[in-house]
């Protein structure tokens, strides 16, 4: 296991009076061991103890050739994996439990009396994973670099008569060509009224002259996610749509300016939201300003009005204000990923935010 990351978790466990913990999230296990194991419905559990009695409980269906830096405890499909795990737990002490661990495993562990009380251990891991080390920061930069290329390649296709679903498929094709393992979420490729609905499900609609087009896309490169949104227009842009676009770009700029150590996550949200409200479109900014990102597109720690956590160097999160006018068929969102530095932030996306009107195909 990565001893630096492990020691940060163990130190936090001591601070929280949590002498032992079960981690079930495959991404966190990958973050610690460098090995991605997707167990499906089977139990996979990393048991950590402040005294060093660490074990990884794993089904025999997942043989491991490399040394993961932790003792492996095997079980098979006709054995009770939770009962085997319970033999190693200190039953007279509190135990932290991963928030994604299925209830069928947790309830069985409780039935076995494996712990004096059960605590949410994920907050410890979430806050530690939130701060990216230098290697992770480089991986985030590279993933975002490819995302910039992807959106540049995608934009010309918005005027080629593709449906939203076909544009979605083209997005996936571009990320594959760029060497990404996959998209980091289902691409949002929406025209006009679809763009004006933040919860729009990609359909068979096609774009037409004057339509705004939201392109919210991201990919996984070396397991790290990217996420970026640009809004472009087909053929022409109305004065009304340009007004909305300019407001959102300025809100994005103000949010990025507020993204620095010592400020709170809610300060970034307020920087965007207050400006949009000042311009008369507060009710039309219907979602939070952003989310943390790393091994997942949406990680713990959002950029919202209620998150008062202090921003720290090493955090990566999105700044993505938007204005949505469904009755006018106008939706504009601009999103960048920021990496918090010692004195401000580094914007990981470099693709232009100048207004783009894509020429119609002859």
UniProtKB/TrEMBL annotation:
What CDD domains does the entry give? APP-like
**Residues annotated as domain Creatinase N-terminal:** 6-131
| Highest taxon of the lineage | Bacteria
Looking at the record, the residues that make up the Peptidase M24 domain are 138-342
Q: What is this protein called?
A: Xaa-Pro dipeptidase
- Source organism per entry reads Faecalicatena contorta
């Amino acid at each position: 296991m990565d001893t630096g990351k492990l020691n940060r978790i163990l130190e936090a466990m001591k601070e929280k009076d949590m002498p032992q913990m079960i981690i079930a999230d495959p991404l966190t296990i990958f973050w610690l061991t460098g090995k991605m194991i997707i167990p499906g419905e089977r139990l996979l559990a990393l048991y950590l103890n402040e005294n060093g009695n660490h074990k990884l409980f794993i089904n025999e269906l997942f043989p491991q050739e490399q040394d993961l830096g932790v003792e492996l405890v095997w079980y098979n499909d006709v054995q009770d994996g939770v009962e085997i795990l319970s033999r190693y737990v200190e039953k007279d002490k509190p135990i932290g439990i991963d928030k994604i661990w299925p209830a069928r495993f947790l309830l069985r562990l409780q039935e076995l009396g494996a712990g004096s009380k059960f605590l949410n251990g994920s907050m410890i891991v979430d806050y530690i994973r939130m701060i990216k080390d230098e290697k992770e920061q480089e991986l985030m930069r590279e993933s975002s670099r490819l995302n910039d290329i992807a959106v540049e390649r995608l934009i010309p296709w918005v005027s080629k008569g593709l449906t939203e679903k076909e544009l979605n498929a083209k997005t996936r094709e571009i990320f594959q060509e760029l060497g990404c393992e996959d998209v980091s979420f289902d691409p949002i490729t929406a025209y006009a009224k679809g763009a004006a609905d933040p919860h729009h499900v990609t359909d068979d609609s096609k774009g037409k002259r004057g339509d705004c087009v939201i392109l919210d896309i991201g990919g996984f490169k070396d397991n790290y996610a990217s996420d970026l949104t640009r809004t472009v227009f087909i053929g022409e842009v109305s004065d009304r749509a340009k007004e909305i676009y300019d407001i959102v770009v300025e809100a994005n700029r103000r949010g990025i300016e507020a993204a620095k150590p010592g400020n709170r996550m809610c300060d970034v949200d307020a920087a965007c939201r207050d400006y949009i409200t000042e311009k008369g479109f507060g009710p039309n900014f219907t979602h939070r300003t952003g989310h943390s990102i790393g091994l997942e597109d949406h990680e713990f720690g959002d950029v919202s009005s209620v998150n008062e956590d202090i921003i720290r160097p090493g955090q990566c999160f999105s700044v993505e204000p938007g204005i949505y006018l469904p009755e006018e068929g106008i939706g504009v969102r601009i999103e960048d990923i920021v990496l918090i530095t010692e004195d401000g932030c580094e914007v990981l996306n470099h693709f232009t935010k100048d207004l783009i009107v894509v020429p119609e195909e002859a």
